[in-house]
Design a protein that fits this description.
Elements lengths: L15 H11 L1 H4 L38 H10 L14 H13 L2 H4 L17 H13 L3 H4 L31 H10 L15 H13 L8 H15 L1
Helix pairs in contact: 1-4, 6-9, 8-9
């Protein structure tokens, strides 16, 4: 599955009718028919499904405040978001993914009013060594990450109780942005729109961002299935039986 398709392999534009059908058959049960996050199954989740009409997405490769690229949306659709009710929709064909992306973008005026977004370049990865991991611990302190995420990166920093969006337990794996250090780097560069998580672009040097990603990846615990993830699979299976 190619994760970024602005047009189909034949160069044709996405089929609006197909996109609407794919959304209705696979997404509306949680996100609602209009994409407002109030689908029939929304009540089953501790964290509500995203309101797609706002056009704000946490997991992007674009700069803070920008809309995601088609590749970003494809990655979320196909791979899902670990630990959440957004489970992988990897049964969709490339053409279906392309079509539903176009439909999702039609739900928010933010896409219509924004030029084609550009992905931020991810700096080349330095070697992942014990020294890099040790430097990452220092970068965690320099970035004042513990203020929200806590000294052990478990989401229990002194400011956590005052935040509307609870900081993530960064020892839980895989992280919502993805399982690799590169995914962590992408989040550190872009921030998470709609949350207190800022961009660290130009706050930390490129090597410091990679070192921090290596340190965070080294702290990962054994993966656990969350209640929302179980609910997501339950909704998928029940919906498929209809």
């Amino acid at each position: 599955m190619a994760l970024g398709l602005a047009a189909s392999a034949s160069g044709q534009s996405a089929d609006p009718a197909l996109g609407e059908r794919v959304f209705r058959d696979n997404c509306a049960i949680c996100h609602g028919a209009t994409g407002d996050g109030r689908g029939m199954a929304a009540q089953h989740f501790k964290t509500p499904p995203r309101d797609l009409t706002k056009g704000r997405f946490k997991f992007r490769s674009t700069a803070s405040g920008q809309v995601p690229t088609d590749a970003d949306l494809a990655r979320t659709i196909v791979q899902g978001i670990p630990s959440t009710g957004m489970v992988p929709q990897n049964h969709l064909t490339d053409v279906e993914v392309q079509a539903v992306i176009a439909f999702v973008k039609s739900l928010s005026p933010r896409f219509a009013g924004t030029a084609s977004p550009k992905a931020m370049p991810i700096p080349a990865a330095p070697p992942e060594t014990a020294e890099a991991v040790a430097r990452g611990a220092k970068a965690y302190v320099k970035g004042e990450c513990a203020e929200c995420h806590g000294k052990e990166a478990r989401g229990d920093g002194p400011s956590a109780k005052d935040l509307s969006v609870k900081p993530s337990d960064l020892s839980r794996c895989p992280l919502k942005s993805g399982p690799a250090a590169r995914d962590i780097v992408r989040t550190l560069l872009t921030g998470l729109d709609g949350t207190p998580m800022p961009s660290y672009y130009q706050v930390l040097d490129d090597d410091e961002i990679w070192d921090l990603a290596y340190w965070l990846a080294s702290r990962a615990t054994t993966p656990e299935t969350t209640d929302d993830e179980r609910a997501g699979w339950h909704v998928v299976h029940m919906h498929q039986r209809r």
